[in-house]
Amino acid sequence: MTIISVFLLWMTGGLGLLIQDPPANQEAPAPADKTTVPATRSDDSNIQGTWCVVASKDSGRTAPPEALRDIRFVITKDKMTMESGGRKQESAYTLDPSTSPKSIDLTTNGRTKPGIYDLQGDTLRICFSENTDKRPTAFDSQPDSVNDVVLTMKRMTPEELDDAKGDHAKIQGTWKVISAEDSGRKAPDEAIKNLKWVITKDKITYKFGEKTTELTYMLEATKKPQWIDLTEGDLTTLGIYKLEGDNLKVCFPEVPQGPKGKRSTAFESKPDSVNDILIILKREKP
């Protein structure tokens, strides 16, 4: 099972789908070893916040960055909620910082998965076993090992959270296309004079000629340049955007690259480049 499958399982039934009831003759998972270091409850407060996944390994295989960019973990005093693509999966959790490594138990749909964690400032690592109910012993993802799935997360700053939330609200509205270029060729004004984008919280709709196109989109405002993913059916185009008040620029490849493809890198239009389609828009006032 790939790390992507693990995430999907966590979200659609969560870790509970990974957890099987142990056979009658199987002993309960053993706790991590206790240490002589006094327990501290500071982790209970320090772990709270919003975390983005920056690295993930499953049985030694590293997940591509594109698969992780939209995943967030929102941790409160007693709940850990995984968010991705508008879906959420909530788990209860408990920490035991007195063990070595420190222990975390995640409970989803009444079933508990034992893991380990390491919290260093704004970096959090969690490790759990994909196929067993045994507690991992180290943060080294290996095949056929209890040290199986390792997630590395970074705490999101208030500024990053504001940017991520703000652009989703600010980009909504009706936008008039004032300039469009394809492979360095500028579209004539006559061709775009009636072209508009209508952007809602999750869709972009535009009409060109007799054809109306509806796309879903996703923003990643914390990237530089900022990312926009445009999806029509099964095809996803990886673009970039810049939103400044009532002005919006979007650049993307003409041919959809898919989730593992190449993304535009600059607001320019050149032939045979991922910086292919450049569209400049201005917000229409009500």
Explain what the structure shows.
Mean pLDDT is 82; it is low at 1-41. The strands form 2 sheets. An 8-stranded antiparallel barrel has the order 1-3-4-5-6-7-8-9. The protein is elongated and about 70 Å long. The protein is built from 6 helices and 18 strands. The chain has helices at residues 3-11, 15-18, 42-46, 65-68, 158-170, 189-192; strands at 49-58, 61-62, 72-75, 79-84, 87-96, 102-108, 111-120, 123-128, 149-155, 173-182, 185-186, 196-199, 203-208, 211-220, 226-232, 235-244, 247-252, 277-283. Strand 4 (79-84) and strand 5 (87-96) form a beta hairpin. The protein has 286 residues and is mainly beta. The chain has 2 domains: 3-156, Lipocalin (Beta Barrel), CATH 2.40.128.280; 162-283, Lipocalin (Beta Barrel).
Shape label: elongated
Cα-atom Rg, whole angstroms?
A: 23 Å
CATH level-3 fold name of the largest domain: Lipocalin
Query: Briefly, what CATH class of the largest domain?
Result: Mainly Beta
- The ordered string of helix (H) and strand (E) elements is HHHEEHEEEEEEEHEEHEEEEEEE
Secondary structure: number of strands:
18
Distance between the termini: 50 Å
Secondary structure category: mainly beta
CATH architecture of the largest domain: Beta Barrel
Mean pLDDT: 82
Q: What low-confidence regions span 5 or more consecutive residues with pLDDT below 50?
A: 1-41
Q: Strand order of the main beta sheet, please?
A: 1-3-4-5-6-7-8-9
Helix segment tally:
6
Number of domain units: 2
What is the beta-strand fraction? 35-45%
Query: Helicity level, as a percent range?
Result: 10-25%
User: Tell me about the biggest sheet?
Assistant: 8 strands, antiparallel, barrel
